[in-house]
Amino acid sequence: MLNKKAEENVLTPNFITLVIGAICLVLILGGAYLIYKNVMANQEAENAKTTLNTIISKIEILAEPKGKFTIQGFQKSNTWFLLSWNKNDPTNTKPEKCFLNSCLCLCKSQHDDIQSDNWKENCQTQGQGFCTEIKDKDIFVNNLFAYSELRPKDTFYSKNKLHPQMIYLRPNLMEIHIEKNASTINLTYYTDEYLTQNQK
After folding, report:
1. Residues forming a β-bridge with 158
2. What is the largest CA-CA distance in the chain?
3. Do residues 84 and 188 touch, judged by C-beta distance below 8 A?
4. Global pTM?
5. Residue 146 — very low, low, confident or very high, per pLDDT cuts 50/70/90?
């Protein structure tokens, strides 16, 4: 009987120590995961901002009316979209930074179905969207797929919302075609399917 009581006295502190150790381990691992997730999210946003700055630089450098340039995607870049708004677009559809002028934005989708996204909100949420004003010109982005019915400069209505044309980023290299004149800039990405279809 004494041995059983002594055994219980030894086991009880050990059990409590084991439970406390397990809780501490879970807290440490959870904290490490949250730190990692935050660092990765910040890195993703920085990559997006750098990509937009690269695109703007390429637009400004191009002296010819037509040309093309290559950009490199980044990890999770396929959830980011290049969009444009023009000076005369309705202000209630535009991010605040685009209120008075045209602008080019790189913004993260918040839904699997991009037509459910509120791009105005996405593009003005910190860390989820970046916009650069384009003064004195309209800017259009075009993502041409095989059998695309959308023409350059088209917007489209879905679920009672006006959606701008957009180019979604790929995680690999992308070739963007550009056309410039005194009043407009057109950026176009031709998908592999589109190029294949139109080579036939």
Report:
1. 161
2. 98
3. no
4. 0.69
5. very low
For residue 12, pLDDT beyond 70 = no
Structure tokens at 196: 């294949």
Dihedral through CA 187, CA 191, CA 196, CA 198, nearest 10? Answer: -40
- Ramachandran area for residue 172 (φ above 0: left; ψ -120 to 50: alpha; else beta): beta
> Domain limits of the chain?
39-199
Rounded distance between C-alpha atoms, residue 28 and residue 35, angstroms: 11
Q: Report yes or no: 176 and 69 within 8 Å, Cβ to Cβ.
A: yes
Instruction: Tell which wins on pLDDT, 95 or 19.
Output: 95
φ, ψ of residue 89 to 5 degrees: the values are -65, 150
- Name the least confident of 51-55, 57-61, 142-146: 142-146
